[in-house]
């Protein structure tokens, strides 16, 4: 079985995964409490305003040897410990993020189709196809 013959299931599964992921993200309460407001938000914003976009950690430890330094040990004990992602200023654009999400769904569907096309015969039973593609999709989405 050629993977090219599976283009319809590839696109259909990518669209369905995109819709399901969007609906779950918008309407399920699972992630509503993931973020907590920082006390004195304006003060923190002003303190961070000069940082260029990027990923930061606090306190910063350049290498493993620096962890043995008593000053670093004290900083770690005193806290706070933080991992920060500073984004560019402005309203975040959802379009590119949604396009990447859909592209990822297409890639997962192609990987599933590849495994199905290499492990099963063209007239395989529905349940066998579902079992292989479901296992591959579970691993692919679980590793994301």
Detailed description of the structure:
It is a single chain. This protein has helices at 7-27, 41-48, 70-78, 94-119, 126-142, and strands at 54-58, 82-86. It is mostly helical. A two-stranded antiparallel sheet has the order 1-2. Helix 1 crosses helix 4 and helix 4 packs across helix 5.
Short overview:
It is built from five helices and two strands. By secondary structure, the chain is mostly helical.
Mean pLDDT: 92
- Backbone shape: elongated
Strand order of the largest sheet: 1-2
Counted up, domains total 2
Reading the helices and strands in chain order gives HHEHEHH
In terms of per-residue confidence, which ranges show pLDDT below 50 for 5 or more consecutive residues? none
Sketch the major β-sheet. 2 strands, antiparallel
**Ends apart, CA distance between termini:** 28 Å
Total strands: the figure is 2
- Determine the number of helices (DSSP H or I, runs of at least 4 residues): 5
**Fraction of helical residues:** 55-70%
CA-based gyration radius: 23 Å
Structural class designation: mainly alpha
The fraction of residues in strands falls at 5-15%
Summarize the topology.
Layout: H1 7-27, H2 41-48, E1 54-58, H3 70-78, E2 82-86, H4 94-119, H5 126-142
Antiparallel strand pairs: 1-2
Essential attributes:
144 residues; mainly alpha
